[in-house]
Amino acid sequence: MLENVRLSFQGIWSHKMRSFLTMLGIIIGIASIISIVSTIQGTNDQIRQNLIGAGNNAVEINLSQGQTNYEISEWNPVPDGIPVITESIRQELLNVDGVEDASLYNVRTYAEGIYYQNSTLQGAQVYGIDQHYFNTCGYIVRTGREFLDEDYEQYRKVVILDQTAASSLFQEENPLGKTIEIDSQPYVVVGVAQQKAGFEPVINSEEDYDTYIGDEDSGIVYMPSASWCIAYMYDEPQNVVIKAQTTDDMASAGSKCADILNGYITGDSDVRYRARDVLETLEQLQSSSEAMNNQLIWIASISLLVGGIGVMNIMLVSVTERISEIGLKKAIGAKKRSILGQFLTEAVVLTSMGGIIGVVAGIVLAQTVSRMSGTPVGINVTAIIISVVFSMLIGIIFGLLPSVKAANLNPIDALRHE
């Protein structure tokens, strides 16, 4: 076997230009597939990172009417049969497999009437949160303080802003200790919060902006859930956010928690709790991008077919050139199996070298395209291994016919060949 490999390299080196041109179809096909697969992998990784964010594994469980979130307001009253979530229910959620923490919150997605002196915060979100919210969602108060037990017990009118809200209302001014108005009620700013792990989704289009950013860019104001009734409604049912132990637990944990919450709903209302299935959204976005890219892979595979035909052609030429050599080997006792193995090995070595060069060229091509267009790239080791193995199979398949022809030559006719 090793002798066959040595002879294969010797033959390839003896006809360097011919061997390279023979490998060219394999190189182009493998390089195209590797670059496409790398782009697919990088795009999927970016989609996953954009959706899951900094890796806090938070799953929102919202009151929903059909597929749309149901936000309680002056125009959307509290539906019949939707209870306020108690601490005992929260503890029940914590007992669900895969749930690390859980938090209850109220929200106004488009809150009006938020002022500081002459500045207005338009279209911001206001959250009434419990003391578990920041830990569950992966936030930390970088400036000032978090909410204290006394803030909840004494119904203090205090708020924490995110960075966007703080910048919009106060520009360069320090917001701590300043008083803002929310629905004509004064609230003192006690802190500014941001995510523990810095993360900004990559936005390449308006569609990406709507998918990953949405309305959060207007800023968020957090107040203690105990103070929610001062600006808004008493006994308003909350939404829930849970922190899953791992990314893989997000879908199942969210679904189980939504089922528990829906078990406490009475009456005939069509409003139910629904978990935002981030992984389902991820799969939908990835599948839509992969559908087109898979077509490109099939198109690129055509060059592999062309490369395989080229291998078959050059191996037939090689057999013709070496008929006398084959006849001599058979005359001194070489078996059909030995001749077959020699030429088949040469075909496999030829296509394997093309596959390896194609892999390197594909990685370089993917990196070049990434730098020029900003497209993310993720090198897929499995695809590399499959590509090299596939190139070897091409050598076996398309080298089989010439190898069989060589093995079946009549030694007398071969020795007489000029």
TrEMBL record:
<dbReference type="InterPro" id="IPR025857">
    <property type="entry name" value="MacB_PCD"/>
</dbReference>
<dbReference type="GO" id="GO:0022857">
    <property type="term" value="F:transmembrane transporter activity"/>
</dbReference>
<keyword id="KW-0812">Transmembrane</keyword>
<keyword id="KW-0472">Membrane</keyword>
<keyword id="KW-1133">Transmembrane helix</keyword>
<dbReference type="Pfam" id="PF12704">
    <property type="entry name" value="MacB_PCD"/>
</dbReference>
<dbReference type="InterPro" id="IPR050250">
    <property type="entry name" value="Macrolide_Exporter_MacB"/>
</dbReference>
<feature type="domain" description="ABC3 transporter permease C-terminal">
    <location>
        <begin position="299"/>
        <end position="411"/>
    </location>
</feature>
<protein>
    <submittedName>
        <fullName>ABC transporter permease</fullName>
    </submittedName>
</protein>
<feature type="transmembrane region" description="Helical">
    <location>
        <begin position="377"/>
        <end position="401"/>
    </location>
</feature>
<feature type="transmembrane region" description="Helical">
    <location>
        <begin position="339"/>
        <end position="365"/>
    </location>
</feature>
<feature type="transmembrane region" description="Helical">
    <location>
        <begin position="296"/>
        <end position="319"/>
    </location>
</feature>
<dbReference type="GO" id="GO:0005886">
    <property type="term" value="C:plasma membrane"/>
</dbReference>
<dbReference type="InterPro" id="IPR003838">
    <property type="entry name" value="ABC3_permease_C"/>
</dbReference>
<feature type="transmembrane region" description="Helical">
    <location>
        <begin position="20"/>
        <end position="40"/>
    </location>
</feature>
<comment type="similarity">
    <text>Belongs to the ABC-4 integral membrane protein family.</text>
</comment>
<dbReference type="Pfam" id="PF02687">
    <property type="entry name" value="FtsX"/>
</dbReference>
<feature type="domain" description="MacB-like periplasmic core">
    <location>
        <begin position="19"/>
        <end position="254"/>
    </location>
</feature>
<keyword id="KW-1003">Cell membrane</keyword>
